[in-house]
Amino acid sequence: MRYLIDTHLLVWAMASPERLPSALAALLEAHDTTPVFSVASLWELMQKGALRRPGFRLNVSVLRRALLDCGWDELPILPAHVLALSGWLRNTTDPFDGLLLSQASCEGILLISSDPQLGRQPGPVRWMT
Question: In sequence order, which residues have a C-beta less than 8 Å from that of residue 96 and are 6 or more positions away?
Fold first, then answer.
């Protein structure tokens, strides 16, 4: 089964796995699970890095390589994802969350997040704490 993992959770998975919700840690270790990360998450992390927030030190290229090396699938941003985005932007103020929701919906996969606001959205999202 494929699961799209929200941005902060994929960072935790690679940098601080002890912070992952236990249910997600178990899911990621299951043999029939293929975790997926979005290029939108890489873009979001590049944006955060460009803001030079204190304590935010992340080499996005290294993170991407680690995700791929660990067997994660990379989901590009396709025209269909962008065209379906208008329906999701009404439900969230975060354009990256909207794009992740749009991608999950278009691809028929479940988006996993521990963001309570995202977890309340309609559609293919599962909130884990």
Answer: 7, 40, 41, 43, 44
